């Protein structure tokens, strides 16, 4: 099997800029520009963050992981408190289970913004739940940081001024997949994409990326909406075209289900995933034989070697992983977007010296920083998408994600 050694090189100047910014921003969380302050006490105030997460339903394989990351980072920051102006504030989380239902996610957003008076909203691991939260957050003028992956979460920007997205843009993931596929000499590719906004983004991005790489997209089929549907009859519509490779574009648990169906129908070619596949479910005992040898494009945080990084962001990442292992036994390698979301809100509050929603939005929209999951570069004209050079290529070896060099 050819190794994709020529996959995306790191942009050193860009990484250097992000690393310097991360050092400045993260180190600044330990000081206050408004004078000396003490630890949190009876007179301290709160920074209130509301979260609507998929703790049950199909999205729970992502939501539960984010809840863990959310609690770990909040506990860490609350050890010293968050300096905002001349006060140290404690972070108070208000977490709701949206059960993977958009209607419930919208209801949560309304309640959190009006009754709980949260300073910021985070969550929505699925595109549909995030899309349901967006109009509420925009109407109530409360910053919302989404964990979902879809092109239309932050655009049109004029109607998404309070909305931010952490996941990689579909075009960046698709371009990396196309380069990987091309480097392996594969010329005929099939595509299986989940329904909804995430799948829509994938179909558009993969179609364009494969065309630019002179690779034939022989068939593009949408997967059933229900996880317990008959995936085998759907995947046969792709495999009957005898592709060299199949790209599965969707979030877990649908990614693993699709891979199993491919193998059950006799497909022996290579399988490629987008970043949404990375969750413990994809590498479960049931899925393990089907996904062995599969590839994924995912933020580099999936790589355990990042623990040797001694930069401020690297040390912060190492501390997060150690705390995660201590609490949950093992680190699955998922991208901990919830951790980054909390830190982004904290940085915005510190820089703006206020928890006012409008000031938080303004300072969120001007952050360049390296997080736990990857690097972000927000600007007034760009509210979403992890930096492309944060992405890496991984393959499954003996039931674990291993970085391809």
Tell me which CATH architecture of the largest domain applies here. 3-Layer(aba) Sandwich
Q: Which class best fits the helix and strand makeup? A: alpha/beta
Instruction: Write down the CATH class of the largest domain.
Output: Alpha Beta
- Assembly type of the chains comes to single chain
Describe, in plain words, how this protein is organized in 3D:
With 405 residues, the protein is an alpha/beta fold. It is globular. It folds into two domains: 22-168 and 310-389, Response regulator (Rossmann fold, 3-Layer(aba) Sandwich); 171-303 and 392-403, Rossmann fold. The longest helix has 19 residues, at 60-78. The protein starts with 11 loop residues before the first helix and ends with a strand. It has helices at residues 12-28, 60-78, 102-114, 127-140, 170-183, 197-212, 231-239, 254-264, 288-291, 312-328, 337-352, 357-364, and strands at 46-53, 82-84, 87-97, 120-123, 144-146, 163-168, 188-193, 216-222, 245-249, 270-273, 295-299, 368-370, 375-377, 384-386, 391-397, 400-403. Helix 2 packs across helix 11, helix 5 crosses helix 6 (197-212) and helix 11 (337-352) packs across helix 12 (357-364). It contains twelve helices and 16 strands. Helix content is 39%, strand content 20%. It has a seven-stranded mixed beta sheet with strand order 2-3-1-4-5-6-14, with helices on both faces. A seven-stranded mixed beta sheet has the order 8-7-9-10-11-15-16, with helices on both faces. Strands 12-13 form a two-stranded antiparallel ribbon. This is Branched-chain amino acid ABC transporter. Belongs to the leucine-binding protein family.
């Amino acid at each position: 099997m050819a190794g994709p050694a020529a996959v995306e090189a790191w942009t050193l100047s860009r990484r250097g800029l992000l690393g310097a910014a991360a050092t400045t921003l993260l180190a600044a969380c330990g000081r206050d520009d408004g004078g000396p302050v003490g630890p949190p006490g009876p007179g301290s105030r709160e920074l209130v963050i509301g979260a609507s997460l998929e703790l049950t339903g199909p999205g729970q394989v992502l939501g539960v992981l984010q809840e863990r990351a959310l609690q770990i980072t909040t506990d860490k920051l609350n050890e010293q408190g968050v300096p905002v102006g001349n006060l140290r504030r404690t972070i108070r989380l208000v977490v709701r289970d949206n059960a993977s239902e958009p209607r419930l996610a919208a209801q949560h957003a309304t309640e959190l913004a009006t009754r709980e008076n949260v300073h910021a909203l985070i969550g929505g691991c699925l595109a549909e739940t995030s899309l349901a939260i967006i109009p509420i957050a925009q109407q109530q003028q409360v910053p919302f940081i989404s964990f979902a992956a879809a092109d239309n979460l932050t655009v049109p920007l004029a109607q998404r001024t309070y909305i931010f997205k952490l996941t990689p843009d579909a075009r960046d993931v698709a371009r990396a997949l196309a380069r990987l596929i091309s480097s392996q000499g594969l010329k005929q590719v099939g595509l299986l994409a989940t329904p909804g906004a995430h799948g829509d983004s994938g179909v558009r991005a993969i179609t364009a990326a494969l065309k630019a790489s002179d690779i034939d997209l022989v068939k593009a089929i949408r997967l059933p909406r229900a996880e317990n549907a008959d995936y085998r009859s759907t995947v046969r519509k792709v495999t009957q075209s005898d592709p060299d490779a199949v790209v599965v574009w969707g979030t877990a648990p649908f990614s693993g289900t699709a891979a199993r169906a491919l193998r059950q129908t006799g497909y022996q070619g290579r399988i490629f995933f987008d970043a949404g596949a990375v969750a413990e479910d994809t590498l479960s005992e049931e899925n393990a034989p089907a996904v062995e040898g599969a590839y994924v494009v995912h933020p580099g945080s999936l790589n355990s070697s990042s623990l040797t990084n001694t930069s401020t962001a690297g040390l912060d990442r190492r501390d997060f992983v150690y705390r995660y292992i201590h609490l949950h036994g093992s680190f699955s390698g998922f991208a901990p977007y919830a951790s980054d979301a909390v830190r982004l809100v904290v940085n915005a509050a510190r820089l703006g010296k206020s928890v006012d929603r409008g000031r938080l939005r303004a300072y969120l929209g001007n952050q360049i920083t390296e997080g736990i999951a990857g690097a972000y570069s927000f600007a007034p004209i760009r509210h979403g998408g992890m930096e492309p050079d944060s992405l890496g290529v991984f393959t499954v070896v003996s039931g674990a994600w291993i970085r391809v060099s």
